[in-house]
């Protein structure tokens, strides 16, 4: 990988899904493959940004699925959060981000004085802004203001996360104004088909997310009165219907591979991971009834009793919390290093939502042989449910408008409805409205009986965690922000686990950019003001 200021060398690919272009070194003369404002097509560039966006966000989610116990972590934190995580041969999130940032700034330059590109540039700023704050949330300081400008800054310096956040907030405000003023559409908008009201709802919801995310250190981004700022957002257009949910929809296309990443993992070949026992316990056993979403989230491949093989190795281990949950929900505890039992076809895998795999009807068929939705799933990025959970957290912790209990109920019901309606399937095993009502009633009773606001916040974030399946970015941020769910499983094979409060920089970038030094995973991002050892 080239320097941050030099890595954007394969921008002139013929189509959105073909990336076979030559990567040139910017130490050479002017790069013929580099799309300048004079040679670039804004439609193509924005198509490319959409592709880069979903690829980046999807892979960042995969990076923390096991950290957040949705999948089982089968190693230690230092091993899985290594210097190669953001520089892997398949994902290359670091490189993808800066390619998107390069395209973004080219679009912005093209849009100067061109009213036909107002919507293009607004969408561009929102998508790349979302990627940018995600980069900050994962690695902290990043090259930003000097980045992708190799002629002036061959080695871009690191910028403080709060300064980057502030710049993104300014871009969001400008994007809203530009959307309102725009009269020309973006012909291949993969998210909202150029629906201006939906883009504004997303922009305002993204701003709400940022303000709640930074509530522990809001002054660092120049927010003197976050309550007033959030209340102003709550009074206006936010994502509050499924039609407005900000999500990416995958296609049933094999070449190039365009199916949901979970589907690729669980249905194209034998499942190479394990689902997390803690997550499955929370769905199956943490309340008086099963979570109504369990058959949608999870698919059991086999009705084989795992107490014989291989789980006999964990039954008598005092540090193993769950081992086997029963009813053929077959996964591993958090930090369980004993793997490779040859039970790939018997493990619980991803289900119908959000991967578009199989709905669990007790069919107990190997995932690859099931009747399923062929991976045409979704990446749930900022949904009605998420916005309601954020609003509930804000109302409880900051005193913003709204009743936290009512917002909590709305958030749970929005998640339930979205999951239960997914795929429009028919089955005798579908969840019922009565089961949803009973679930909600139990949560609200627990909330009403909570003895403190901290206990109440624990309930809100725990339900957020369960609703955020398919987007562990939300769970990773909420866990660092609040420390909840409080009952989350600690790694079983580590006497002194150190939870990754951030991820490392690209190893290649550290090697070539003298302004970037590798850091430890104990380093906290600017909005995480909680003490060391706060979470495990």
UniProtKB/TrEMBL annotation:
- Keywords for the protein's UniProt record, in alphabetical order: Lipoprotein
- Which InterPro entries did the record assign? SusD-like_2, TPR-like_helical_dom_sf
User: Which Gene3D superfamilies would you find in this protein's record?
Assistant: 1.25.40.390
Entry-linked Pfam families? SusD-like_2
* Superkingdom of this protein's organism: Bacteria
User: Which protein, by its recorded name, is this?
Assistant: SusD/RagB family nutrient-binding outer membrane lipoprotein
Whose protein is this, by species? Flagellimonas aequoris
């Amino acid at each position: 990988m080239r320097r941050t200021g030099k890595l954007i060398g394969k921008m002139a690919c013929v189509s959105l899904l073909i990336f076979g272009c030559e990567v040139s070194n910017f130490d050479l003369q002017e790069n013929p493959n580099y799309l300048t404002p004079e040679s670039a097509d804004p439609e193509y560039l924005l198509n490319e940004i959409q592709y880069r966006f979903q690829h980046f966000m999807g892979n960042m989610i995969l990076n923390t699925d096991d950290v957040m116990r949705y999948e089982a972590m089968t190693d230690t934190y230092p091993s899985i959060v290594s210097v190669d995580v953001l520089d892997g041969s398949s994902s290359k999130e670091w490189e993808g981000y800066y390619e998107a940032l390069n395209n973004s700034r080219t679009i912005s330059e093209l849009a100067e004085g061109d009213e036909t590109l107002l919507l293009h540039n607004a969408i561009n700023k929102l998508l790349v802004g979302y990627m940018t704050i995600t980069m900050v949330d994962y690695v902290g300081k990043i090259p930003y203001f000097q980045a992708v400008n190799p002629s002036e800054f061959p080695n871009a310096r690191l910028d403080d996360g709060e300064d980057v956040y502030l710049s993104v907030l300014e871009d969001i405000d400008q994007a809203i104004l530009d959307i309102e003023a725009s009269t020309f559409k973006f012909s291949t908008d993969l998210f909202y088909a150029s629906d201006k009201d939906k883009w504004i709802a997303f922009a305002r919801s993204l701003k709400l997310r940022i303000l709640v995310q930074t509530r522990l250190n809001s002054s660092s981004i120049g927010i003197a009165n976050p309550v007033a700022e959030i209340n102003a957002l709550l009074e206006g257009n936010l994502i509050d219907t499924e039609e407005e949910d900000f999500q990416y929809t995958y296609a049933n296309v094999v070449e190039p591979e365009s199916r949901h990443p979970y589907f690729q993992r669980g249905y194209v070949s034998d499942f190479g991971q394990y689902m997390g026992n803690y997550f499955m316990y929370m769905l199956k056993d943490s309340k008086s009834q099963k979570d109504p979403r369990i058959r949608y989230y999870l698919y059991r491949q086999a009705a084989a009793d795992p107490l014989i093989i291989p789980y006999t190795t964990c039954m008598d281990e005092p540090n193993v919390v769950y081992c086997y949950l029963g009813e053929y929900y077959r996964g591993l505890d958090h930090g369980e290093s004993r793997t490779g039992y040859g039970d790939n076809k018997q493990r619980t895998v991803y289900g119908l939502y959000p991967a578009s795999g199989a709905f669990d009807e007790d069919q107990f068929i190997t995932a690859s042989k099931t009747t399923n939705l062929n991976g045409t799933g979704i990446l749930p990025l900022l949904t009605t449910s998420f916005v309601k959970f954020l609003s509930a957290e804000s109302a409880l912790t900051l005193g913003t408008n709204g009743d936290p209990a009512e917002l909590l109920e709305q958030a749970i019901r929005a998640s339930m409805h979205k999951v239960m309606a997914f795929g429009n399937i028919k089955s005798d095993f579908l969840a019922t409205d009565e089961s949803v009502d009973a679930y909600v009633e139990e949560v609200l009773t627990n909330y009403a009986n909570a003895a403190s606001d901290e206990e109440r916040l624990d309930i809100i974030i725990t339900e957020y965690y369960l609703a955020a399946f398919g987007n562990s970015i939300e769970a990773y941020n909420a866990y660092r922000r609040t420390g909840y769910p409080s009952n989350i499983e600690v790694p079983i094979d580590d006497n002194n686990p150190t939870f990754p409060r951030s991820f490392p920089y690209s190893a290649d970038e550290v090697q070539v950019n003298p302004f970037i030094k590798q850091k430890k995973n104990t380093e906290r991002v600017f909005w995480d003001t909680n003490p060391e050892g706060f979470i495990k």
